[in-house]
Amino acid sequence: MDYLTILQILDSALRLATPLLFACLAGLFSERAGIFDIGLEGKMLMAAFFSAATAYSTGSVWLGLLAGIAGSLVLSGIHGLASITFRGNQLISGVAINFLASGLTVLIGLSWFKLGGQTPALQGDARFQGLDLPFAEALSGVPVFGPLYSEVLSGHTILVYVALLCVPLTWYVLFRTRFGLRLRAVGENPAAVDTAGISVVGLRYAAVAICGVLCGLAGAYLATGLGASFVKEMTAGRGYIALAALIFAKWRPWYALYATFLFGLLEAISNRYPSLDLGFVTLPSQFMQALPYILTVVILAGFVGKATPPRAGGEPYVKER
């Protein structure tokens, strides 16, 4: 494997890790506030459909992005209503959202486009285009750093850079602001927050809304940045992989970046080498394609006990009279 191949794999890994990173940070906000969200997958799928459908209909990828975020926020609102207001089971609500999104996207797609649940291919301004970072060409000749900057970091769509910027922003909001302190407190001890005169319900709805926006960005990127249309079930389990990455990252933003990049790297390797010859054994294509999912199972089996979730996570808050 030469240096150019490594750069191409890293470039692909960064693109593939972006929707996982958005979804992982979405889950982080929600779960830090005590709302477990299995419905990341469904929200991403709904956002992917509406972003692609709107971008195709209007010819504007930005209107598509707004529509994707809106679609995700509607499902977030339903999840918030079920788990915060009506104090329902958060896991069942999340699973229901996944089923709802899976069925609705195909049904509406068939009705609107008559393409078996897909949207037509997006072209031109209906897709996010790659951006060249400043001095990318000038620095390409610098040993080691130059190719990394010009080949791996440069040339991605704007949402890749937004995802990377969301990591320090999430860290700052959660650990350096009053809002972040209250949000984390709601996930650990909502009664204490309520005693201080702060609305537990308001904070949890805020966290669920942020989760919806980030899932909207993830879904929109899948359909209008990484791909060029919406395809049935195109999230392909990424919402569940993001949840595994969140557990692996122990609910911390910087660790979430590393965890999602690891998943993206495995997917990039499986795409690059459909079957991998190690000399003494050849790994079949089925094994290579299953690599990210195998890692998900390994991480969940090995880290669930070691990673401590927010103490009030998954429990509806009932105000004492």
TrEMBL record:
Membrane topology: Multi-pass membrane protein
Subcellular location(s) per record: Cell membrane
InterPro entries: ABC_transp_permease
Keywords: Cell membrane, Membrane, Transmembrane, Transmembrane helix
GO molecular function: transmembrane transporter activity
GO cellular component entries: plasma membrane
The protein, known as: Nucleoside ABC transporter membrane protein
Top-rank taxon: Bacteria
